[in-house]
Amino acid sequence: MELEARSAGEPGTAWRKAWEVRPPASVEVELCGDGPWTLAVRADAAWAAERTAKEEDRQVRMHVFATGEVKGVVESEDAAAPAAVRASFAASPSVHQRARNEAERAALEALEGETTCPIAGEVMRCKLPRAVLDLRLAADGFIPHYRWDVEVVESPAKDLGVLRLQRGSSVAGFVVVGEGEGGGEGARVRLEPAVLGWAGDPRSRKRIAGRAMEATANSRGFFQVSAVAPGAYHLVVDKEGFIEQRLEGVRVGERQETFLEHPIALHPPRAIEAFLTPPVDPYGRPWTIALRKPIPGSIESRTIVESEADLSGSWRAGGLADGEYVIEIEDHRDSTWQRQELTVASPLESLFVDVPVVEIEGEIRFGDEPLAATMAWGGAFRSPSILITSDEKGKFEGYLPDYGVWQVDLVSEGDESIQSAGSVEVKPQPGRRRAKVEIRLPDTEISGEVVRGNGEPVAAAGVLLIREGERRARGANLLTDEKGEFRLRGLAEGEYLLRAYEGERTSEWSAIHLVDGMDASHLRLVLDAVVELEGQVVSAAGEVPGSQVIAITWVGDPSLATVKTATGGADGTFRLSVPASSRAADLVVVPPGLAMQFLHVAINAERPAPLLVYAELNGGTVSLGADDPQELLAAFLVHGSSAVNVKTLFQILSASGRMKFAAAGGLEVVAARPGEYALCRSVVRPADGCASGVLAPGGALTLRLPARSGSGDAAGAE
Predict the structure, then answer these.
(1) How confident is the model over 15-69, as pLDDT tens digits?
(2) Exposure pattern of 681-716 as b/e (b: 16+ CB <10 Å)?
């Protein structure tokens, strides 16, 4: 046999030489050229793994194995059958267990490689090392086959049986128990289509769940799910006596196998214990602890358990899987005092929670009148959020987790109305046990009514107020009474925008200016009719279930866009409503695991045409930047005829991970459809400055707003 050495130099300078050798033997050779060098054995009846020699190496050990032959009959559903099959091989674990010494173990570690098996007629043949091997047999575009514990001998050729080649994609991997290398036999593996957003229709959820594919792990813990359409999936693994494990966001390419890099490790149920100080809430009642599981691709979370701690401040929850959780500490009045994120990765996680308590007292007034109200200190939808109620004289007392500046909302339990009372500073006061605060709401008032297009009043319609300024903030959110009327008092002076909504219907934004001591004019908000947009998302593999479809319409100020969202059903169909007064809508279509698309759609209120969205596989990354972050948020991302405000885009895509902050600053749009993009300050006045470029399939494009003093386009593509 020959020992061949070659260097990896520049073209024309590479060095190559071969020597005759007869193992077992030690051969001393002189290597020329620039290292490193690749060493290989060339022989008809022997095989050895290639090795790399570096300049500092003085000895390289190569293990040579005699070869035998395997064969099999190849059947293909495709008329264009492959001319050969690639065989990847490694020593079976059973052989490793029988190794008698370190030398044998080292030889078996080296027994791993790949060779080509030509097909003549329908018969595949190839030479492999004589040993007990695990085989992976694959051809481009076809689903691989696996054979385990194949004993290759000198003669006769080992018959692998029939290999039926099927074009398509697959997902494969191993299941283990704990940190070991076995125990996964019999585990049930389920591959579920990823659903972006929330498929609210129970029938749609059931149909999507019905598209899940299943497999059972073999004695090795190995599984393979075949005939998988390209896209994104969730992998769910369970076995009796162990906690179910989920792997989110498994991406499957076209005619490829996704092999999981790490085994899915099953564990017995985990537990969390918490110890709270003080052991009871400020009112002497047990703390309540809520354990929640964040939902990937969403701002929502799922409650796992919600229960009281004992009077010593101890709490425990069991039956948990590994992963990320959120724990919230609440008092008996449903105030949230603390929120913590934690990772469960061991049999028992212990958490020591210190809950500071500050006493306060004070008075709240509307103008010069005392106000009876329920206040949410910290905000109604934030954490912490402490509920404190004032009496008919406006007096209140209660407890907070800390001093400092607190955002205070007024909340109404009856109709779930919320109104901002502004920021209140709580300071420690020497010589006093309680901090004293006073809240005075301005003497302002807004009143109005919500009606349909025919003038009919709308009861229980929502009314949203947004405070104008450099940074818009929610002023209030309330419901109309049985006459369709609403009234708000005590908002801070300034400019506000109001909009009414009922289901899919909304009114246009109305502007109003509030002055302390002066009543505003009575408003009439008219709900707009809606148009149903229907369509279907498909790919080369067929229908794409679970896509997120967002329709954006706006008039005047793009940061006040109307955003409607729908989740595609099991057959890829979607339906969403947009205001009938809109002439067009910009659609953002996010198919799980496929490239995101931007579409500009004209709206015909009388005869809306159904939409067909074709999802592609090889999306790329678009990086957006500007010298001023606020300018970037106010800019537009343009693709074809579609133009979407960057801030609006980030708000709707960040939860699903399709848009995120870039490590080097700016923002990144992930898995966008290839094509031409532009980042513009204005779609009305493109001369204000644009950066443009072309995103290649699977590539990257950088767009940065040019400085205002410059001119022309500025873009970089990677």
Answers:
(1) 778 888 777 767 777 877 777 888 888 888 889 888 888 888 878 888 888 999 9
(2) bebeeeeebbbbbebeeeeebbbbbbeeeeeeebbe
- Which among 451, 445, 456 is positioned nearest to 525, based on CA atoms? 451
pLDDT at 713: 44
Sole residue written with tokens 């370190």: 102
Q: Do the Cβ atoms of 464 and 479 come closer than 8 Å? A: no
C-alpha to C-alpha distance for 702 and 632, rounded to whole angstroms:
13
pLDDT of 558-569, one tens digit each? 556 788 888 888
Per-residue model confidence as pLDDT tens digits over 569-588 = 888 999 988 888 788 889 99
Q: Is the peptide bond before 674 cis (omega within 30 degrees of 0)?
A: no
360 band by pLDDT with thresholds 50, 70 and 90: very high
**Residue 679 backbone dihedrals phi, psi, to 5 degrees:** -115, 115
Nearest CA-CA partner of 302 in 271, 273, 326:
326
Q: What is the pLDDT of residue 717?
A: 41
Maximum C-alpha span of the chain: 105
Note every long-range contact of 354-358, with CB atoms under 8 Å and residues 24 or more positions apart, other chains counting.
354/277, 355/276, 355/277, 355/278, 355/287, 355/329, 355/401, 356/401, 356/402, 357/278, 357/282, 357/399, 357/400, 357/401, 358/399, 358/400, 358/401, 358/402, 358/403, 358/426, 358/428, 358/435
Which CATH number covers residue 349?
Answer: 2.60.40.1120
How many whole angstroms separate alpha carbon 260 and alpha carbon 253? Answer: 13
- SS3 call for 66: strand
Pick from 417, 441, 465: which residue ends a domain?
441
pLDDT for 569 equals: 87
Give CA–CA dist 289/308, Å, rounded: 6
The answer to whether 148 touches 160, Cβ cutoff 8 Å, is no
Residue with tokens 């008075």: 363
The segment with the largest mean pLDDT, out of 177-181, 312-316, 525-529, is 312-316
Domain enclosing residue 45, as ranges:
2-62
Among 10, 45, 62, give the residue marking a domain's end.
62
Backbone angles phi, psi at 203, to 5 degrees: -65, -40
* Same domain (yes/no): 607, 545: yes
Write out the two tokens for 163: 């290999």
Q: Give 3-state DSSP helix, strand, coil % of the chain, rounded to 5.
A: 5, 55, 40
Tokens of 36: 């490193």
Separation CA 502–CA 26 (nearest Å): 85
Residue 524 CB partners (closer than 8 Å, separation 6+)? 448, 449, 451
- Is the domain of 609 the same as that of 551? yes
Strands 188-193 and 231-238: antiparallel
More confident call, 361 vs 710? 361
Are both 255 and 174 inside the same structural domain? yes
pLDDT band at 471 (very low <50, low <70, confident <90, very high): very low
What's the N-to-C CA distance of the chain in angstroms?
A: 47
Whether 433 and 385 share a structural domain: yes
